[in-house]
Design brief:
The chain is mainly beta and about 750 residues long. About 10% of the residues lie in helices and about 35% in strands.
């Protein structure tokens, strides 16, 4: 055998030996190593990293780094079969002249490469020796991935020996995460003057990747639409573009995000919470006591971290009930929509009508003086208790307004003033407390006008706080003003009366809506009677002030104070009195505390839908009633209504009137006496809803229409007499005629001479 032949056989044997080593070596002997080469000169086999979209075909490179010592190799590639489907393996540029043999090994794809000439792979870095082709599943999800694992790697040298020192680097396949949406950031409120750099636009946003995963991704913002201006109030819309996308995340649809920045003139400041910073002085009560908030300090904290002391009155407190003993009673304080609470104790006690707080029976308890009395006098508590006592239930409304009953017992004010010698020209009575609080009333309103207890003044109420709902004056009982030595607020049970804040002036209402509670001056010390002429309240004003108005116009009334100077008004042209509709139910002192209620309770008059005359008057304590203000409103196109006073009598009416006059002048004294009403005739209530029938001594029945005395301040008694009629049907100053053309009787109201009586023909 020639020398050349021997050489060829050796090469073939070497090749076959190499193949035998590759084929027969058990798969799995190769070690999966870290991605970096462990030592210089050690061969490394590396699977490539590939990304692709669902449905695409990918080519995974298999790279060999060597120094020319590898002549054959074999490996298996593992992968996720739900993501990839194997197609084929082809030789790479670094394996020219080699033969490739691939087959399935379990769940892996196995590949062997060899050279019949026993020629090694070209040495170098990352030489691609094979390319494995796969199809990506069209059902694969965005962001899905898998490892391309090299397993069972065997490298062989020219002598057929396995190269055990080697590095194996796995590959990676992934489907890019596609941005499908971005969460809209919350709107930002800034104060006018805030620079663009300081408005606080977020640096990242939350993006949705694929179907569900969330990632924080950087964002860059434009300058706003309209362009942001720190000096312009309003809303600005900013558009954000995603930036610095994380590895494996793409945004092929250029998804963007928008957010709003509101520039406001001033930052909205709201009440965040309230807290008791100083507790009330009185935390222990006796049954029947009134709530005492002395010493209580409630501090509010606001959204801008500022604080302020809140105004708290008994109207802000709920839960107090001193009608029975209670070991721990929780009182809740409400300011706006925020609450806090504290606990008090109600102790049982035997009701005493003895010494008032802070006094002894021998010291001066009350003084009456002033130029309106002839003899200033002082009284001790014992002296007052020794006088005839007068006890009644009173109906009381305050300026919130809230309604409540009160039982009081004491000395009649008239009796005390009589001892001081009240003068005939006395005009004003001023009540002053030990703490300096005072209230002045006119002699007329307190002593000359009749005052009543209205037992049904809470009708139609759902709560005592609904003091603006007019109750019924039915069953009214006349009551006297007194200086109370014992009383109970909020109850009609005299068993609860006590002397805790005595003495106190207590008096009734002239009408069912009159707000009188502020005149109950606690711890009364002095009564000063004056002959000074009372001032007159200012007349109401209106907006609009009258004239032509559109259909549906609303009219607001107002006066100087809008507090205890109450406005009463009518819309039918009649004269307003205290029995008319009240306008400013809620006193201005409570407007801040009842801001949400003022417009709905002190509501404008209207809508004006026809020619309308509004008459209004101011009535309040300590002054004369104002002059009546008249506001005439006309609707475009409406016909002006002619009043009865403007009607001229016809010749026939004049003739009929003369006949009536002749009959009246011929009446005998007996006829005149018989035409009168008996003494027990019923009184007429101002708000009577049905007609009242009165029967004269001669049997003639007289029907008084509902509302005939609607402008009176209390129950009235009708008088009837035959007399001389000198004018057409209209109201007279001392008598009101029910159509003298039909009736030969005159009708008046007992004790009234103010011309405000207005009858309507039955």
């Amino acid at each position: 055998m020639s020398y050349g032949r021997k050489i060829m056989l050796c090469k073939i044997w070497s090749m076959l030996l190499c193949i035998a080593i590759i084929v027969c070596t058990p798969l799995g002997r190769g070690l999966i190593q870290p991605a970096e080469v462990l030592a210089e000169g050690v061969p490394a086999l590396t699977a490539g990293t590939v990304t692709a979209a669902p449905g695409e075909v990918i080519n995974v490179p298999i790279n060999l780094t060597s120094s020319g010592e590898v002549v054959a190799l074999g490996f298996e590639l593992s992968y996720d079969h739900s993501l990839l489907t194997y197609k084929q393996t082809s030789l790479g540029s670094g394996a020219a002249g080699f033969t490739i043999f691939d087959y399935i090994s379990g769940n892996n794809e196995a590949v062997n490469l060899y050279n019949m000439n026993n020629t090694p792979f070209t040495g170098g870095t990352d030489s691609t020796i094979a390319t494995m082709q796969f199809t990506v599943s069209s059902a694969a999800s965005s962001g899905a991935s898998c490892v391309l694992g090299l397993n069972g790697v065997v490298l062989s040298d020219a002598l057929g020996n396995e190269i055990t020192a080697k590095t194996v680097n796995n590959g990676q396949f992934s489907i890019p995460g596609i941005v499908t949406g971005v969460a809209t950031p919350s709107a930002i409120n800034v104060v006018i003057g805030t620079a663009l750099a300081n408005i606080g636009l977020p640096g990242t946003v939350i993006a949705t990747i694929g179907d569900s995963s969330m990632r924080n991704i950087d964002v860059t913002w434009d300058g706003g639409t309209p362009a942001y201006s720190a000096t312009t109030a309003g809303a600005f819309t900013f558009k954000g573009s995603l930036a610095n996308l994380p590895t494996g995340v793409t945004n092929p649809n250029n998804v963007t995000v928008t957010m709003t920045v509101d520039v406001v003139v001033t930052a909205p400041v709201t009440l965040s919470s309230i807290a008791i910073t100083t507790p009330a002085t009185k935390l222990t009560y006796t049954v029947g006591d009134s709530l005492d908030l002395s010493g209580l300090v409630v501090t509010g904290t606001y959204s801008d971290n500022s604080t302020q002391v809140e105004t708290v009155s008994v109207n802000n407190v709920t839960g107090f009930d001193s009608s029975a003993a209670a070991a721990g009673q929780t009182l809740t304080i409400t300011v706006g929509d925020k609450t806090t609470s504290y606990i008090v104790e109600i102790k049982a006690s035997v009701i005493s009508q003895g010494t008032a707080t802070g006094t002894t029976t021998g010291e001066t308890f009350l003084t009456i003086s002033g130029d309106g009395v002839t003899t200033p006098v002082t009284f001790t508590q014992a002296q007052l208790e020794g006088m005839p006592q007068y006890q009644r239930t009173y109906s009381v409304v305050n300026t919130w307004p809230t309604k409540k009953f009160e039982v009081a017992k004491g000395v009649k004010l008239r009796d005390l003033l009589a001892q001081a010698g009240i003068k005939n020209d006395a005009q004003l009575i001023k009540f002053t407390s030990k703490d300096g609080y005072y209230l002045t009333l006119t002699v007329k309103e307190l002593l000359k006008d009749k005052r009543y207890y209205f037992p049904h003044f809470k009708e139609n109420l759902t709560a005592d706080g609904d003091g603006n709902i007019r109750g019924s004056s039915a069953g009214a009982e006349e009551v006297e003003p007194i200086i109370a030595l014992v009383r109970v607020e909020g109850s009609d049970n005299p068993a609860y009366m006590n002397a805790i804040d005595a003495p106190v002036p207590v008096y009734g209402q002239r009408t069912v809506t009159e707000q009188i509670n502020e005149g109950f001056v606690k711890y009364l010390a002095t009564i000063e009677v004056s002959t000074a002429t009372p001032a007159k309240w200012d007349s109401p004003q209106a907006n609009p002030a009258g004239g032509e108005v559109p259909v549906g116009a609303m009219v607001k009334l107002f006066n100087d104070h809008m507090d205890n100077d109450k406005i009463y008004y009518t819309t039918d042209g009649s004269t307003p009195t205290m029995n008319s509709q009240m306008y400013n139910w809620i006193a201005s002192r409570w407007w801040s505390a009842r801001a949400e209620d003022v417009d709905s309770i002190n509501k404008p008059i209207g809508p004006i839908e026809k020619n309308t005359t509004i008459k209004a008057i101011t009535i309040g304590p300590g002054k004369q009633d104002s002059k009546i203000a008249t506001f005439n409103y006309t609707i475009p196109g409406e016909t002006t209504v002619t009043t009865k006073e403007d009607v001229k009598l016809t010749d026939n009416q004049l003739a009929d009137n003369k006949t009536a006059l002749d009959k009246l002048s011929a009446a005998t004294p007996e006829q005149k006496q018989a035409a009168q009403l008996p003494p027990d005739v019923p009184v007429i209530m101002p708000e009577a809803a049905t007609p009242t029938t009165l029967t004269a001594k001669d049997g003639v029945q007289i029907v008084v229409p509902a509302g005939a005395v609607r402008n009176q301040t209390g129950p009235v008694k009708i008088t009837v007499a035959l007399g001389t009629v000198t004018a057409a049907p209209q109201a007279q100053s001392t008598a009101v005629v029910l159509d003298p053309l039909k009736y030969e009787r005159q009708f008046g109201v007992e004790g009234q001479a103010d011309g405000s009586i207005q009858f309507t023909e039955p």
